[in-house]
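Q&A log
Question type: sequence-to-structure
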Amino acid sequence: MSEPTTARKHTALPKARILIEALPWLTRHHGKTVVIKFGGNAMIDEELKAAFAQDVVFLRHAGLRPVVVHGGGPQISKQLATLGIESEFKAGLRVTTPEAMDVVRMVLAGQVQRELVGLLNQHGPLAVGMTGEDAHLMTATKHYADIDGERVDIGRVGEISAIDPGAVQALLDDGRIPVISSIARSADDGHVYNVNADTAAAALAAALNAETLMVLTDVEGLYEDWPNSDEVISRLTAKQLEKLLPDLASGMVPKMQGCLHAVRNGVHNARVIDGRVQHSILLEIFTDEGIGTMVVPDAHEDEGAA
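Response status: OK
Response body:
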């Protein structure tokens, strides 16, 4: 009778090893706040969305305090097209007319956020949806695009001028998972503005004194010499990142600028990870190898892996 028992133990053993590997990371991250920017393919692929929700709930039950910030570019473009409103971009930013802003607000707060809250809440009554408008969480000023040295009006596009994280902090203290849409109201003109979700996540991570900012992308991380090489930089300091910024592909700029802002404003580390990989968040936080690119403050230059 002893043989089957031995076989069962052996088949389960790798699972135990995986759990034990996670132990030092569970200890290190317990009670810490992690801000996750949800975007890219992970937002539109059903399996990736479900895996993302599982990861975030796992973090919460593992003793971390996750906060999710999201945009919704593909969904906004689709809805604008349905309504016959043309999508126009200048300097990588969506030109947002008042009519387009109504659609942006509806899609982000009424569609993307609701779906994400629903996915998270399949695992328990945890997620609460907010926008940057709620409780003055984010205040915006109008952003003008710089095109060839010229200041160009691109409509209701904003940049964050202030953050009051009190409502998010209260939700975290209550054991909830805040899910935040990146729109904000201006104190100057009262209008609601569309805010880049990478920028919003970075500003919120700094305001919350988060341990980690995690940005999901559609690439493996920051490439060392793109397009000549697909070698991913696993770790770099703020100073090293600053030198690379002028040469980055336009899509990576707001993400890496966000990472730079975060680690220069009290966030312990910022990570860009591949959202196309199922459970990439767990792989990054709870395994020795990690995946993607980690940015650390300059003071951490000589330290071991964070």
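Response note: The two ends are 47 Å apart (CA to CA).
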